[in-house]
């Protein structure tokens, strides 16, 4: 990969299936490096599955040397135990990336869908179909968790390259004004 290429690792956390997708960004060109899932045995101890997530994250980071990791935030469900387990899986993925010195960003499912399709309520198939258009690929993965992870990576790329991202936050305005002093009226 060229020196000016940024690699983004996207993660769709799960305790049974964890999706991951890696993209390479060179200028305005975005291409897929890898997209797949880690399938975890539901009959195995939860802590064993967390260890496998940690191991998979370490392997992906060592192999691809991503500049950043984008992870989908868990949505709120009715089953508290499932939410707790999902939060642990997400925490392991985040901690592993941070331990390796990789910056982490988190996006809500609605934000990811909005970023990819323009509709925060899009379904998994709509996200996958739009990713095919954006990234120019034709394959259909066995698990849409893989394309969800890819969508998180692409969402992160879009957010990093959006000059208005974060403007609603005070520090976002401050950063924007520092980067664009010509926009400040002295009158």
Automatic annotation (TrEMBL):
Keywords, alphabetical: Cytoplasm, DNA damage, DNA recombination, DNA repair, DNA-binding, Endonuclease, Hydrolase, Magnesium, Metal-binding, Nuclease
Positions annotated as active site in the UniProt record: 12, 72, 145
Subunit (UniProt): Homodimer which binds Holliday junction (HJ) DNA. The HJ becomes 2-fold symmetrical on binding to RuvC with unstacked arms; it has a different conformation from HJ DNA in complex with RuvA. In the full resolvosome a probable DNA-RuvA(4)-RuvB(12)-RuvC(2) complex forms which resolves the HJ.
Domain of life, per lineage: Bacteria
Cofactor note: Binds 2 Mg(2+) ion per subunit.
Subcellular location, principal: cytoplasm
Keyword Plastid: no
Binding site for Mg(2+) 1: 12, 145
Enzyme class: hydrolase
Enzyme nomenclature, EC number: 3.1.21.10
PROSITE patterns: RUVC
Name used for this protein in its record: Crossover junction endodeoxyribonuclease RuvC
Compartments where located: Cytoplasm
Listed cofactors: Mg(2+)
BP GO terms, sorted: DNA recombination; DNA repair
Catalytic activity, reaction form: Endonucleolytic cleavage at a junction such as a reciprocal single-stranded crossover between two homologous DNA duplexes (Holliday junction)
Entry GO terms, CC: cytoplasm; Holliday junction resolvase complex
PANTHER family recorded: CROSSOVER JUNCTION ENDODEOXYRIBONUCLEASE RUVC
């Amino acid at each position: 990969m060229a020196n000016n290429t940024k690699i983004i690792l996207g993660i769709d956390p799960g305790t049974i299936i964890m999706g991951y997708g890696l993209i390479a960004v060179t200028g305005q060109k975005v291409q897929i490096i890898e997209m797949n899932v880690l399938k975890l045995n539901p009959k195995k101890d939860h802590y064993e599955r967390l260890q496998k997530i940690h191991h998979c994250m370490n392997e992906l980071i060592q192999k691809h040397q991503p500049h950043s990791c984008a992870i989908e935030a868990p949505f709120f469900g009715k089953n508290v135990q499932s939410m707790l387990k999902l939060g642990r899986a997400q925490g392991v993925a985040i901690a592993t990336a941070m331990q390796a010195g990789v910056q982490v960003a988190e996006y809500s499912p609605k934000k990811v869908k909005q970023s990819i399709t323009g509709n925060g309520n899009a379904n998994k198939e709509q996200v996958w179909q739009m990713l095919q258009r954006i990234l120019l690929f034709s394959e259909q993965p066995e698990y849409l968790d893989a394309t969800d992870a890819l969508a998180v990576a692409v969402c992160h790329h879009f957010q990093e390259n959006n000059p208005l991202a974060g403007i609603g936050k005070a520090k976002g305005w401050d950063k924007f004004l520092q980067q664009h002093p010509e926009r400040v009226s002295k009158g």
